[in-house]
């Protein structure tokens, strides 16, 4: 069976030999209209509906498992026909904002020491169609989604062609008509990808997982620092900021007695100097099986926040969500892959 969700009109036209040219657009529009039955696509010729019914399927992925956290976070694992398992998450905030956190790769090659996904290495990239499938499945199960963040399994800037293609499909009026400005790409600091976002003036938001503003310390957490040291990362980000004119968000996972001292905060202030109104999301480390870091005490968290405020840094405390449902990125998919 050939899956249809996530294919461009041109791909649909080629795969199903569709003519006249408007037929592919008609089918594309039907796929995202909420109709989940080829028979009900009444504007398509009967012969085409019969062919689609006999040989086509909406999704290639199957929903393996769904877990709902006490805080409302819903984590789902999806399995593709080759056996690849990924996670897709919906986070609901107090303000009613519903964010889909999408994976872009099966596993990840970046080896961040605080990340569960990193433990299994990279298996493969997701195609644009598979990324779109994630989103449409989440929308089907959780209702309308207000924001998208590419922060699930994988490094989106290492699969940027497919991510950009998925964004184009999701933002097209016949699909979700999703505003590109409500889409965030979160990176561990892949400099060539940041420069490409700048050169092409991509309208998506950019978030950077920083976690330490000292090369030696950051390299212990994030091996990418050895390839792209903080100075090079900062130059690329400043270039992006000038080219695109958008505020950059920085993620800082606070780990007890590792990156939570006043000296660490001073290094962070130095790094942020030159960025226009950067926003720092402070996320106290959440204990995770197989990873040995310690959570900071509330006192240390608040000391760090206060010191940031004293230095004019716009820092917001974020609690990691879905703690009761294998909340760490890749934790649930890791379990389901083992089955
Ligand atoms: S944090 Fe992101 S980039 Fe780092 S290993 Fe995990 S999935 Fe990859």
Describe this protein's structure.
By secondary structure, the chain is an alpha/beta fold. The protein has 2 domains: 2-57, Orthogonal Bundle (DNA polymerase, domain 1), CATH 1.10.150; 62-337, TIM Barrel (Alpha-Beta Barrel). It has helices spanning 9-16, 22-31, 46-55, 128-142, 160-171, 191-199, 215-221, 224-227, 230-244, 262-272, 298-310, 331-337; strands at 2-3, 56-57, 62-68, 74-79, 85-92, 98-101, 105-107, 122-125, 147-150, 183-187, 205-209, 249-254, 279-284, 314-317. The chain has a 10-stranded mixed β-sheet. Strands 1-2 form a two-stranded parallel sheet. Strands 7-8 form a two-stranded antiparallel ribbon. Strand 10, helix 6 (191-199) and strand 11 (205-209) form a beta-alpha-beta unit. The chain is elongated, with a radius of gyration of 21 Å. The model has no long low-confidence stretch (mean pLDDT 93). It binds iron/sulfur cluster (SF4). Iron/sulfur cluster binds at residues 108, 110-112, 115, 117-118, 153-155, 188, 329.
Concise synopsis of the structure shown:
By secondary structure, the protein is α/β, with parallel strands linked by helices. The protein folds into two domains: 2-57, Orthogonal Bundle (DNA polymerase, domain 1), CATH 1.10.150.530; 62-337, Alpha-Beta Barrel (TIM Barrel), CATH 3.20.20.
Note poorly predicted spans. Answer: none
- How far do the termini sit from each other? 24 Å
What's the helix-strand series?
EHHHEEEEEEEHEHEHEHHHEHEHEH
| Main sheet properties | 10 strands, mixed
List each distinct ligand once. iron/sulfur cluster
CATH fold description of the largest domain: TIM Barrel
Name of the CATH first level of the largest domain: Alpha Beta
Going across the biggest sheet, name each strand in turn: 3-4-5-6-9-10-11-12-13-14
* Shape label: elongated
Structural class: alpha/beta
In terms of DSSP E residues, the strand content is 15-25%
């Amino acid at each position: 069976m050939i899956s249809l969700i996530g294919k461009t009109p041109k791909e649909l036209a080629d795969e199903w030999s569709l003519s006249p040219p408007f037929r592919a657009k008609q089918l594309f529009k039907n796929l995202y209209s909420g109709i989940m039955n080829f028979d009900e696509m009444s504007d398509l010729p009967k012969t085409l509906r019969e062919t689609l019914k006999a040989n086509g399927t909406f999704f290639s992925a199957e929903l393996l498992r769904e877990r709902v956290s006490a805080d409302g976070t819903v984590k789902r694992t999806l399995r593709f026909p080759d056996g690849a398992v990924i996670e897709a998450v919906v986070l609901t905030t107090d303000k009613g904002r519903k964010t889909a956190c999408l994976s872009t790769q099966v596993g990840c090659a970046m080896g961040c020491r605080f990340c569960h996904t990193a433990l299994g290495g990279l298996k493969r990239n997701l195609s644009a169609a598979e990324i779109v499938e994630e989103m449409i499945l989440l929308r089907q199960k959780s209702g309308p989604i207000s924001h998208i963040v590419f922060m699930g399994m994988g490094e989106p800037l290492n699969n940027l062609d497919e991510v950009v293609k998925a964004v184009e499909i999701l933002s097209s009026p016949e699909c979700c008509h999703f505003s590109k400005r409500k889409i965030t790409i979160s990176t561990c600091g892949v400099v060539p990808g940041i420069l490409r976002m700048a050169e092409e003036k991509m309208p998506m938001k950019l978030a950077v997982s920083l976690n330490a503003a000292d090369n030696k310390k950051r390299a212990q957490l994030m091996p990418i620092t050895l390839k792209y040291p903080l100075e090079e990362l900062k130059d690329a980000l400043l270039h992006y900021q000038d080219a695109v004119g958008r505020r950059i968000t920085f993620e800082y996972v606070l780990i007890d007695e590792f990156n939570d001292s006043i000296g660490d905060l001073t290094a962070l202030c130095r790094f942020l100097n030159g960025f226009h109104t950067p926003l720092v999301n402070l996320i106290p480390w959440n204990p995770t099986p197989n990873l040995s870091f310690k959570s900071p005490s509330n006192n240390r968290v608040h000391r760090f926040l206060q010191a940031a405020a004293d230095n004019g840094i716009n820092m917001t405390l974020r609690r990691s969500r879905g703690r009761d449902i294998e909340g760490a990125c890749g934790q649930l998919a890791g379990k389901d892959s083992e089955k």
